[in-house]
Amino acid sequence: MNTVSTVGAVTAPVVREARVALRWGLQHGLPRLAVRRGAREGDLQSLLLANPPTWREPYAFHERVRAAGPLLTGRFTCMSASHEVVREVLGGADFGVGALHDTPLPQLRRLLDWAGRDRPTHPVEPPSMLAVDPPDHTRYRRLVSKVFTARAVQGLRPRVEELAGELLDELAARGPVADVVRDYALRLPVAVIAEVLGVPPEHREEVRAFEAGVAGSLEVAAPWREVRAVDAALRGFDAWIGEHLQRLRRDPGDDLLSRLVTVTDDEGGAQLSDRELRATAGLLLAAGFETTVNLLGSATALLLQHPDQLALVRADPGLWPGVVEESLRLESPVQLTSRRALRTTRAGGCEVRAGARVVLLLGAANRDPGVFTDPTRFDVRRANAREHVAFSAGRHFCLGAALARLEGEVGLRALFGRFPGLALEPGARRTTTRVLRGWRSLPVRLG
Ligand code: HEM
Predict the structure, then answer these.
(1) CA of 407 to the centre of ligand 1 (A)
(2) Where are the alpha helices (DSSP H) in 92-203?
(3) Dist. CA 447–CA 180, nearest whole Å
(4) How far apart are CA 96 and CA 257, in angstroms?
(5) Which among 28, 77, 102, 282 has most CB atoms closer than 10 A?
(6) Residue 11 pLDDT more than 70?
């Protein structure tokens, strides 16, 4: 008896590890080999996947894609830097998100199914709303939108102001030199998401630790070490959020997650299942955290690098929303997304075969000279900055856009209001991920 249960206890982690390894091999290892070869042969798409310096400074690469035409057909996928094509694909009925492991090969699908068993819920894999098409997407989005209303978000404003004030008090105590990313930009969104998810303050750091591991979950062709770390972080989060949801069911607060636990669909009367709720909470955390950190970090750096623009905002505080939009446009926190053609169709005047994936360079579309005059200039008064696609477009348009805008405006205004002499110090470091762009470290003198 004992032997059997011991064997069971020992085998389970071994099988789990084998599944993670197989998933890595199929989803990351093989693509890594293929893109390295493609990059050596000059394939632009492979260059984007294989070359970390391109992720740190993607704009020269974007211009090469733009110069190749509205839709570039690469070795593995199509790719576009055009604002018009990006909007066309994101809004088009012929395109869906398509699961990453969609494959027409039955053997490969069986392997992927086995490797995917007992995996923790993942922010960008089904049943996450970001990774499903209608009708599932319609149902999830309708339910989540019922609690994530414009009114509920505006109701968070006083609390966001209060949280920003508390964090700035702590920052002032650290002065005269601090890291505005580590000590402020990273801490404000986590505190806000903790409010949304009903997480008590003593668990905030735990949530931040999970999130730090989850940021890599958006990468493809990632190294083994990273994929393992992401899997461990997701497993930890899954267990924690399961317990947290039980707590909220027993003792609901007035946070949005407590409301989501009980909200039902008028049309079907159904609620989100436990797994769907865990996926939604994970998505809110993953989608709403590092993106907002990057917005705060990039906008701070842009303002400090452009004193003339900062002076304009100081003279007219009504320009703060313009700072947020222009920063989202010029340094898009989410640099790219992708869609799969559901049937053979056309985009940017070119044929796209059924099943083909189209990579949409949001950061490049936001610098499209056909839409934005003098696109590389930081101009807080730009009249059409809000036409950016930093929050995507179509049915997956960012559900947290209003909250992100609120956090950006309140967070920046509070920071520059408290420290009028804020100045950059040497030692700034960029993030090193391909999808998310921002600053990992931004030392400043508080003044
Ligand atoms: C500056 C901050 C943010 C940026 C740049 C951003 C960007 C994006 C983008 C580009 C997408 C769509 C991706 C695609 O089409 O494939 C998205 C979706 C989403 N975002 Fe955000 N986001 C931000 C903040 C937030 C916040 C604060 C939350 C919530 C707390 C949030 C929740 C979501 C959700 C739930 C989705 C999925 C919507 C759907 O699939 O229907 N985001 N976001």
Answers:
(1) 14
(2) 106-116, 136-147, 150-155, 157-174, 180, 187-196
(3) 13
(4) 27
(5) 282
(6) no
Ligand 1 pocket mutation pick from 291, 338, 359 by most atoms within 8 angstroms of CB: 291
- Residue 18: count of CB within 10 angstroms of its CB: 12
**pLDDT tens per residue across span 405-433:** 999 999 999 999 999 999 999 999 998 88
Query: Quick check: 51 pLDDT over 80?
Result: no
Cα–ligand 1 centroid distance for 390 (angstroms) = 9
Distance 267 CA to ligand 1 centre (A): 25
Distance of CA 194 from the midpoint of ligand 1 (Å) = 17
Residue 171 and residue 399: Cα distance in Å, rounded?
Answer: 30
ω before 58 within 30° of 0 (cis)? Answer: no
- Residue 220's pLDDT is 66
Set out the domains of the chain in order of their start, with CATH numbers: 118-340+354-445 (1.10.630.10)
Beta carbons of 282 and 144 less than 8 angstroms apart:
no
d(C-alpha 16, C-alpha 14), whole Å: 5
DSSP letter string, 151-170? HHHHHTHHHHHHHHHHHHHH
Kindly state the greatest CA–CA separation across the chain. 77
Residue 392 Cα: closest atom of ligand 1? 10
Residue 398 Cβ inside 6 Å of ligand 1? The answer reads yes
pLDDT at 76 over 70: yes
